[in-house]
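Researcher: Going back to the complex we discussed earlier. I've cleaned up the inputs and rechecked each line, so this should be the final set. Can you rerun the prediction on the complete assembly and write out the structure?
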Amino acid sequence: MPKCRRILFGSVTTWDIDMTQMTMITAIQNAHDVAMARDENVVVFGEDVGYFGGVFRCTAGLQQKYGSARCFDAPISELGIVGAGVGMAAYGLKPVIEVQFADYMYPAYDQIVSEAARMRYRSGGEFTCPMVVRMPTGGGIWGGQTHSQSPEALFTHVSGLKTVIPSNPRDAKGLLLAAIADPDPVVFLEPKRLYNGPFDGYHDRPVQPWKKHPLGEVDPDYYEIPLGTAAVAREGRDLSIVTYGTMVHVAQAAAEATGIDAEVIDLRTLIPLDTETVMASVQKTGRCLVLHEATLTSGFGAELAAQIQSECFYHLEAPVLRVAGWDTPYPHAQEWAYFPGPDRVGRNMKKLMEA
Amino acid sequence: MTETPPLSLKVPQPEFRPGDTPDFSGIEIPAAGSVRRPDVDEPADGMRDLAFTIIRVLDDQGNAVGDWADSLSDDEIARGLRDMMTLRIYDSRMMTAQRQGKTSFYMQHLGEEAISCAFQRALHKGDMNFPTYRQAGLLIASGYPLETMMCQIFSNEADPLHGRQLPVMYSSKDHGFFTISGNLATQYIQAVGWSMASAIKGDTKIAVSWIGDGSTSESDFHAALVFASTYTAPVVLNVVNNQWAISTFQGLARGGSHTFAARGHGFGIPSLRVDGNDYLAVHAAAKWATERARRNLGPTLIEHVTYRAGGHSSSDDPSAYRPKSESEIWPLGDPIDRLKTHLIVKGLWSEDRHKQASAEITDMVIECQKRAESIGTLNSGHVPSPRDMFEDVYAEMPPHLVRQRHDVGY
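Model: Rerun complete. Updated structure for the full complex:
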């Protein structure tokens, strides 16, 4: 284990602890492990998560370690999984649920929107729903239209939910532990293309593993990264790219490729949104590109663009630009024409600089 | 190749529509006391017949007969009558209050009082009901203050839900009454999850789920049965078949199945069909099913056969879709009349005492109503502050909601 001292999130916090190399998968698995060891109310269930340890291996070994009453397989019913989780959370447990792909979430949407999100409100605080619903999100894995979607805007539009999307192993663990500790329901979207490495959008180049990336070094003990705090993934002066998930890495690659000194803001949490970090960056650079993989129209980028123009209007040198997935279902063979990779992002960065 | 005639779509229709003379003589009503009471640990396969009959305790003369009788003491039965009378009088006052504009909406229980009032008596402190909007008897039978219920109806400053919920969507953790969603069926699976949590924790509490005949069509119902069956969850799954879901007759949800109770069979869940207008039968079935849950024997499905004698809600006019006389000739009678007759037959009650009790309860309800109305009604202006609108969305108010609250001036 390397000793590691590093500056985090642009603050002066330093790490002086034994760090372990982890992928996003092992970091998430480790977060479950640490949470279950710490709090016996944490229960983990979903399709294939028990004996097998999940199709992406994020719950591997948990049933063997904590028993089948705390980590178990569920019938193939997302409605049933989330609905049962709502009841368990109301009882006083801390369900950490896996929906196998975010694309499978729709049968459970009513339970998330009308039940989990509103329980505290409608009962005057008498019943609450402290639950985490994890879902692998996004494309880049040849998953076609039913294994590639990015439905985050369907959650950010709902009062009472928190929505989190990490972009690296260290954040994934700290954010997941914060989500588990949170008293309200949290939708935790895991960019599946980042599970095994910091994918920068160059699909035809060799895969980079997390072990070569500084944020693949993870503290094996308990730590939280507070929900509602963004990170500056790359400091820059020319323009701000406000983004999250896989696109954090694509944005950095585009900055390197174009030579445009972009500041890349990794939101990490969409709701609550760290507007302070976003606005400070845009007010500094005067140009802003909002970037996400999800479809453009009514995407979370629209919310960001609206807030940024309203808060930063007099600092802006150019209109806020959005780069996103096209307004089509996620295609299979045309995946890389759909995916907003570094070339498309770079073109728009140049356009923004010329505006 | 044999020629077959063209296909045609079959859409089920109720037997009687407005203007028709209803006739329920085709409904098979077994004699009271005729249905056996199996041991609670009997395998589900051995009691499939109980999903195709009707468990009844009170006969036409008011006697309690058969294996399912004697689950309650005389005092408890007298209290049961009082609970049902209280619910009916409360309903009547609140329906009137709605017509007077003191609230926006109301839903009454007319004809269905026995089900929630009797079921609650089989529960223990700590158990949790996941009710629909037509089980307020659970609250009344558990001693929840009527005045607080009325404050919720009036959305006044003492409404524990701060005016956020539609009237009748009560919530009381202390009284084992889960916050009513207002969405149909969503809570059926939550009760299963709640009961699984009790089992995971090694506690002794059980959950009770409630749904109407119409919303058994929702996927939530089927997911709940899968989960309850798979995990042998300590839950009782109630289906209140009151024949009508607004204008949708029960046949539209039941489809080709003979009864709603039979839905349990595909999941291996023991299933009872009970006379929902018979307080003693409902209680006996509830006691049997809750004992199964407490002994970790798993879920039970109970179909309560009843009739929604009133409208679906204060916004509904059932004369537009069913004959008015249906409720009068409903073959299972009126739950209050039947329990009253039983107590009279037993020499514990009389018509005079009934009238007197009715007057006393009415006075008590009016007193509660006066106190609740003195705090405020929806049209009196004494409603919770808009500030309350922003509370409890999250445990801690995030900055964007603080900004929006400031925008409204709070």
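Model: Worth noting: The interface with chain B takes residues 43, 69-70, 74-75, 77, 79-80, 83-88, 90-93, 107, 110-111, 114-115, 119-128, 159-160, 162, 182-184, 228, 271-273, 275 of chain A (CB under 8 Å).
Researcher: Good, that matches what I expected from the previous run.
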